Amino acid sequence: MRAYVLLTTRPGTSEEVVNAIKAARNIKGVVQADSVYGRFDAVVVIEAEDIETVGRTLYKVIEKMPNIVHTETLLTVF
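The chain above was modelled as a monomer; its predicted structure follows.
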């Protein structure tokens, strides 16, 4: 399963958030994190065996980061 997590961050902190996600070795399943231009500030790609693992990664790690204001998750359909 692959999830694309679209992040909205506090102004001026998207690079800091992306670098923190890339540097954190405890975030299981994160295969890519990039700052982007547009409606969202960053995109994180998570690959996991099931939706429960994606949820744990999101709720227990990514959403607890202080400069993340909002997330929107897009799950792939095979």
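The chain has one domain: 2-75.
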